[in-house]
Specification:
Blueprint (H helix, E strand, L loop, with lengths): L1 H6 E11 L2 H7 L1 H22 L2 E7 L2 E6 L2 H18 L9 E13 L2 E3 L1 H9 L8 E4 H7 L5 E2 L1 E6 L8 E6 L9 E2 L15 E4 L3 E2 L7 H16 L5 E2 L2 H4 L9 H8 L3 E10 L2 E10 L5 E10 L3 H15 L6 H8 L6 H14 L6 H17 L4 H17 L5 H18 L4 H13 L3 H14 L4 H13 L3 H14 L4 H15 L2 H14 L5 H13 L2 H14 L5 H7 L5 H13 L5
Parallel strand pairs: 4-6, 11-13, 11-14, 12-14
Antiparallel strand pairs: 1-3, 1-4, 2-3, 4-5, 6-9, 7-10, 8-9, 14-15, 15-16
Helix pairs in contact: 2-3, 3-4, 7-10, 7-12, 12-13, 12-14, 13-14, 14-15, 14-16, 15-16, 16-17, 16-18, 17-18, 18-19, 18-20, 19-20, 20-21, 20-22, 21-22, 22-23, 22-25
Length: about 600
């Protein structure tokens, strides 16, 4: 599964080309090259960097750029074209670009990308007016009102090597033929903000010579990730994505590019009796050079102190300013009972296993229950216990999954009582409350979790899910996209909620793209196939919808749409009806 995450993904692709480049070269080759270089250094490259894009390659006068967010791609294109127009001379000379943008599946091959998503973007670029932007319908649909212009419908077009018509939308700054149509001003929260320093913490190598100690080295890594994630001025890649590199020999520069971070922490742990040796080194992801390195030889009783020191050193090296509350939280140990902590690490390792099942669930419950018995004030242990009981509610591992949900709610309350400053407890409480259909309490809890830990991908996705189920799908999109930025290696989790949000908004083409991508990452999913079939039904692609449904029934012959929807905490019956209508249009289920 990790290979799929790093080598294939959904991305926004921007293709740009200089208008009249051959004519300009014939007239003044040296001057044209100088002008083009200056344009890239002063306009194009800074705009790409500001909007978190990556220049994949330069092809003569053309440029291919990849973005994790379609909104970032469109805002970048608008900024570039506006800047060019603003600096153009009275004769309109100088560099003029056409830009095309598509959202689609891409395949990553080293530094290069290719695939249908790239091909369509390249075909859209020549369709833009000089100085303008041409986007596929899926891009226009996806950005909606999150940009400050409206694109104009350019109709269906047929392009080379693409076997289907593409609906295109166009924009130009000041053109009479394709006029800009201003949208309402964006709220401050929707405007592009500069990204803070960013870091990924790779799994520390277990140097103990005992594979049974793997949970310990993984646990220390996860604790450092959690401590860093609680710092508002630092973007920290979530555990799922960092652990995708576990056991692999990777180039740090590749990790930085794939996860979109400027720094990477790696290290090793050796545990022998009551002694532990930890080595850690902070690396510049752009150059591969060392920024900071340290070795710690300590008693096991000092493990929390070592973790705190590593966190403080990273913060200092990255020049991140801490608030007083953040300083206090770094120094706060989750427990003073080392045996309870060891049991917690083992239980958490099982609970976060990508292959968790009923047997693993029982083992995790046993470890965590023993941990809270030894330390009844262990908030993190209560929180993990609560969350895995929610897993039982959804997966029906036990004979009483509804009782597991009520127990999850009680355990989350104990986590909050044990430590009111532990964000995990509030996140677990929110998830439990949502499934108990108490959306007001779920909202209060998840907002508190994100107040305590702004980089908490699980909490962001939970708030996005809450918005979807509460009839506010548009509000879900920013949270789910942010969660995917923080946790790109676990995008299958966020793609489903993004797809649901777009489906409920009527953005059926975008929804279908999200669900298709999730199916690529989770081939055995039945729930995303059900939603994809609905989106395809709304699009009128009935044959494909029926094919997807047939795949679903092969994977899960007992699947029932009615039973599935009954378990989901939708507050508005209209949302369920919307999904059912798409299936009905395709004659499903039959």
């Amino acid at each position: 599964m990790a290979e799929a995450h790093t080598n294939r993904r959904l991305a926004a692709i921007l293709a740009a080309d200089v208008v009249g480049y051959s004519r300009m070269m014939d007239a003044d080759e040296a001057g044209t090259l100088t002008t083009l270089k200056l344009h890239r250094e002063t306009v194009f490259d800074p705009a790409v960097a500001e909007h978190k894009g990556r220049v994949v390659k330069l092809i003569g006068d053309g440029t291919l750029v990849e973005f994790g967010s379609v909104v970032d791609a469109v805002k970048c294109a608008l900024a570039i074209q506006r800047a060019i127009k603003a600096t153009a001379g009275p004769d309109g000379g100088g560099i003029v670009l056409r830009i095309g943008i598509n959202l689609g599946d891409i395949i990553i091959d080293g530094d290069d990308i290719y695939g249908d998503g790239v091909n369509v973007a390249a075909r859209l670029e020549p369709l833009a007016a000089p100085g303008g932007v041409c986007v596929a319908s899926i891009v226009n649909e996806s950005v909606g009102s999150r940009i400050d212009v409206r694109f104009v419908d350019g109709g269906d077009v047929t392009v080379k090597n693409i076997d289907r018509p593409i609906r295109v939308w166009k924009w130009h700054p000041g053109s009479d033929r394709v006029a800009a149509q201003p949208a309402p001003a964006l709220a401050a929260s929707e405007k592009a903000q500069p990204e803070p320093p960013s870091i990924a913490v790779l799994p520390f190598n277990n140097m103990s010579g005992d594979p049974e100690q793997e949970y310990f080295s993984d646990g220390i890594t996860e604790d450092i990730i959690t401590d860093l994630s609680n710092i508002g001025g630092l973007l920290v890649i979530a555990r799922n994505s960092s652990f995708a590199y576990k056991g692999k020999s990777v180039d740090i520069r590749t990790v930085g590019r794939e996860l979109g971070v400027k720094s990477v922490l790696e290290g090793s742990i050796r545990r022998a009796g009551n002694r532990v040796r930890i080595t850690a080194q902070l690396i510049d992801a752009a150059t591969g050079g060392h920024v900071w390195a340290q070795r710690y030889d300590r008693d096991l009783t000092d493990i929390f102190e070592v973790q705190d020191e590593v966190t403080r050193n990273i913060v200092e090296a990255l020049r991140v300013k801490l608030t007083p509350s953040e300083v206090a939280r770094i120094a706060d140990s989750p427990t003073t009972n080392l045996e309870a902590h060891d049991l917690f690490l083992q239980g958490r390792a099982l609970a976060t296993s990508p292959n968790i099942n009923g047997r693993i669930y029982v083992q995790a419950v046993e470890f965590l229950t023993r941990a809270v018995a030894l330390d009844p004030g262990y908030a993190q242990a209560y929180a993990v216990l609560a969350l895995i009981h929610v897993f039982d509610f959804h997966n029906r591992w036990t004979d009483s999954p509804d009782a597991s949900l009520r127990l999850a709610d009680e355990l989350a309350a104990k986590a909050i009582l044990a430590d009111p400053n532990e964000p995990f407890g509030y996140a677990a409480a929110s998830v439990a409350a949502l499934n108990l259909r108490d959306s007001k309490r779920a909202r209060t809890a998840i907002d508190k979790a994100l107040q305590l830990s702004p980089n908490y991908a699980l909490a962001l996705n939970a708030r996005g899910g809450l918005a979807v189920y509460s009839g506010q799908p548009q509000a879900a999109i920013a949270d789910c996209e942010r969660a995917m930025r923080l946790d790109p290696g676990f995008s299958q989790q966020y793609l489903h909620f993004l797809g649901l949000a777009h489906l409920l908004m009527g953005n059926n083409e975008t929804a279908a793209a999200m669900f298709r991508e999730r199916i690529l990452l989770v081939p055995e999913t039945d729930v995303s196939r059900s939603a994809l079939a609905s989106a395809l039904g709304h699009l009128g692609q009935f044959d494909e919808a029926r094919q997807v449904w047939a795949e679903l029934k092969k994977i899960n012959p007992k699947y029932s749409f009615t039973e599935h929807m009954a378990r989901l905490p939708f507050s508005d019956p209209a949302a369920v009806n919307k999904i059912a209508e798409g299936l009905a249009k395709a004659g499903l289920p039959d």
